[in-house]
Amino acid sequence: MKKLLKILGIVFGLLVLAIAATAAWVGLTDTPTYETKSLEIQLPTDSLSLVNGAKIARTVCAYCHQGESGKLDGKLFSPESEGFGEIWSGNLTNHPTAGLGKYKDGEIAYLLRTGIKRDGKLAGPFMFFPNLSDEDMADVIAFLRSDAPEVQPADDVRSSRYSFLAKALIKFGAFQPLDYEGKPLLAPPTTDQVAFGRYLATTRYDCAGCHSASFETNNIMEPEKSPGYLAGGNPIADHDFNHVPSRNITPHPEQGIGKWTKEQFVASVRSGIRPDGTALSTAMPRFVLQDEEEIDAIWAYLQTVSSMETTIATAGK
Ligand code: HEC
Ligand code: HEC
Q1: Ligand 1 pocket member 108 (CB < 6 A)
Q2: What is the rounded distance in angstroms from the CA atom of residue 104 to the CA atom of residue 302?
Q3: Which residue's alpha carbon is at the smallest distance from atom 14 of ligand 2?
Q4: CATH topology of domain 193-304
């Protein structure tokens, strides 16, 4: 009996030691550094491509990177209370040191594909664009390099500080960079309306990322395989970091947009006005720069997806 207690004591002691050592390793050592690359990339110079790049950057990148000055000089993306530490989105202006002046075009491309920054660190699990077409990506980077007001040099430098939890998730591989596959990525032609709409909804504007059950269970590479695909419920932080569940945008007749008219859909997506006249939360971006062709294609695509009921994620607050 005494011997058993002694053995148990030793086992317990070793366990405590192992936990303490693991905690020290997570908390005190740096997060991993991954291999960085600069991809081969040709930036377009024609005006149509720049207009496309501006539209995507002003919609998608601006949602997370637009500071109070109106420039893409970064903002508080996730405060301490969210659990991941204090996460600031980066400064994307043309400042030589504080902004993207230090990045090669191909390094920006590699970051967008994999989540690996120029310094080899992971940009959290917050920013992945593995399926964005090569053309859209080059157009966005061309916009970042342009003389547009949003990317005029700003010298803000605010570094993210990852919490113990976020560091643990990175170190144990729950938050990981994506593999770079290197295959050419082409968007479907606009004439193939449903396929083009799918591209917009799953990739260019990633409606699906926010509108499926949870960021934690989303399938980034194959969005349709995400649980609760387009059926909403994912808690999204608004401008004040309150969480608002995304809505069901499948053709479900009660929970979704099955009974909506196209005009009601357009008003929601463009101006953030619901069919009952109330305003949507700031958690939902406003797609004001998108032309009719794009909104029509998204609408056409949404008519084709499976109707599904919403499951509310439990992870939200
Ligand atoms: C969902 C929010 C979100 C969106 C959308 C987003 N980003 Fe980010 N981005 C972040 C966060 C957060 C960081 C910083 C992460 C960190 O510090 O670890 C970041 C970092 C970066 C960096 C690295 C900056 C540096 O200092 O190394 C670049 C470049 C970048 N983003 C470009 C873009 C571009 C281009 C787009 C649009 C195609 C975009 N981002 C869209 C959240 C976002
Ligand atoms: C950053 C996350 C995010 C993205 C990206 C996003 N949405 Fe939303 N969306 C939301 C949230 C959150 C709500 C709920 C807002 C509320 O209830 O006030 C919402 C609401 C809506 C609504 C209103 C539904 C209703 O029942 O009232 C529609 C329609 C909609 N989104 C369509 C889209 C489409 C189409 C796209 C892509 C072009 C898109 N959303 C992209 C977060 C997002």
Answers
A1: yes
A2: 38
A3: 246
A4: Cytochrome Bc1 Complex; Chain D, domain 2 (1.10.760)
